[in-house]
Structure formats: C-alpha cells, structure tokens
Design goal:
Blueprint lengths: L2 H8 L32 H23 L8 H28 L6 H6 L19 H22 L5 H29 L3 H14 L3 H7 L3 H15 L22 H14 L6
Helix pairs in contact: 1-6, 2-3, 3-6, 5-6, 5-7, 5-9, 6-7, 6-9
C-alpha cells in the first residue's frame, strides 16, 4: 500500500483543505452555545469526563513540546509543536467546562497547575518519556486514533458545550492521526535502521493499548487504523492485552510527577503572578 493511499483512505470523512495542525480556524467554537447543563445529565460525571480528556491532552502536549529544538528537522519540530498547541487548546476548553459544572468554579490554571500527580486522570501512555522520534510517532498514531474516535462520538453528546469542543477537536485530531500515519509508513518502509526503530516503538506502545480500550472502547477504530498503517509500512500488527490499573483511577507511572513538576514549577513558585 502506498503512502498516498494511506493518506487518502484515512482522510475519508475528513475532507478539508486544512493540512496544518493549529490551522483549523480561529473562531470561538463555543460562540452562541448555551452553557447550561441540560436536564438529565449528571454534572459530576460530565466534569469528570472533561477533566480526564483534558488531562490526556495537557500531558500529551507537554511531551510533544519537549521536541522543540530536538526534532530531527525544523519542519517536524514546528509540526509537533503545533499539534501540541492543538491539544493544549482542547485541554483549556475542557478544563473550563469542568469548572463550570463541578461546582468548584475552578479555572483552567487551577486544574493544570495546582493538582498533584495522583489527582490527574490521563492515560499512562501519554506520560511516558519520548525516547526516540519513532516512539513519539507510534504513540501519537495510537493516541490520536483513539481520541479521534472518542471525539467523533462526543460531537453528538447531549451537553452542547462538550459537543462543540469535540466537533472542533475532530478536525484537529484527523490531522494529527494523518501526520503520525505518514511518518509511521515512512519509517517502517524506510531504511533498515528506521524500520528497526519503528518496530521497537510499536512494541513499546503495545502494552498500553489495553488501558486505552478500558478507559474508552474504541478498539475497532484504532485496530483498523493500526492494521492499515502497519501493512503499508511492512510492520507486524501490535499485540495488545488487558492492562492492569489505569491512569483514569489516578494510577500513574513514575514519569508523571517529574513531568508535572516541570510544567507547574513557575505557577507554583509565583501563584499570584499576573501578566
């Protein structure tokens, strides 16, 4: 399967002139949206869902930001940074919605900067160190495919705010998935060394697939994408198994706390500072 065929088939249903991350429009996705929690929706459950999705995005954005000045090419550095900015934008909207409905009135900064690692609800795959470029690509392919499937369904959520956030995110995540798929094929079908690294990256990501499917069952969608990409790249299909525990329950690896310390350091050192 050619790289172009992978692009065309994964892009089906997301036809758009947009190919750049952070280029999906700058209109406020919540303009004119009623922020009242509709009858029949549990506000606590809605807030918890928003926080979990926001934590996934924030932690992923922080890891992607680590590629700035370290990516193999300037173009890829900019692309990864912009994908991170897309996710950061999603996190801000989701944290704000959580603060509106959970009764605390917390703003996005309170969620991002003033919670400890045990209070975060992101999946563990997001918090793992970057390792090499191939690993970051393998992780991005999985997480973007999983999140895209989730957001496509959330676009019909009865909460109009969450639905609007998800609808905007679908356009961004479709690009993220495509970017990762193209690089996965390029590396897998490239040199002997790039193939070896991409195969190793798949093996490193595979143990965490079970957690994703437990946190939100998008198994069919994610497996279909991985099968298509691995076939084009000449790579074996990753084997996934049930994963014990979950970041959704506050169970994290030893890597999250130092990542948050770097993210939160300035805000905690100067909690009352303003621009």
């Amino acid at each position: 399967m050619s790289d172009d065929h992978v692009y065309m088939t994964l892009a089906e249903g997301h036809e758009d002139d947009t190919r750049w991350a952070y280029g999906t429009g700058f209109e406020d996705p919540l303009h004119g949206v009623d922020t009242t929690v509709p009858d029949g929706i549990d506000a606590g459950e809605l807030a918890a869902l928003c926080v979990a999705l926001a934590d996934d995005a924030l932690v992923s954005a922080q890891r992607l930001g680590e590629w700035v000045t370290r990516a193999p090419e300037l173009e890829e550095e900019v692309a990864l940074a912009n994908i991170g900015l897309d996710l950061l934008g999603q996190a801000r909207l989701l944290y704000s919605r959580a603060g509106q409905v959970d009764g605390t009135g917390r703003d996005e900064d309170a969620y991002a900067y003033f919670r400890d690692a045990g209070d975060f609800r992101n999946v563990r795959l997001a918090e793992l160190p970057n390792a090499d470029f191939a690993f970051s690509i393998a992780r991005l392919l999985v997480l973007s495919s999983w999140r895209l499937a989730h957001f496509e369904r959330l676009a019909a959520h009865p909460d109009p705010v969450l639905a609007a956030i998800a609808a905007k995110g679908v356009k961004e995540l479709a690009y993220h998935r495509q970017y990762a798929a193209e690089w996965a094929v390029r590396l897998g079908d490239g040199t002997q060394e790039s193939h070896r690294r991409m195969r190793r990256a798949q093996e490193q990501v595979a143990p965490y697939l079970g957690e994703l499917f437990t946190a939100y069952d998008a198994r069919d969608e994610v497996v279909a994408v991985l099968r298509q990409v691995t076939e084009a790249a000449g790579l074996p299909m990753p084997v996934y198994r049930p994963f014990p525990g979950s970041g959704r329950d506050g169970e994290h690896t030893e890597h999250l706390a130092p990542l948050l310390a770097e993210l939160q350091g300035v805000a905690r050192a100067h909690p009352e500072a303003t621009w």
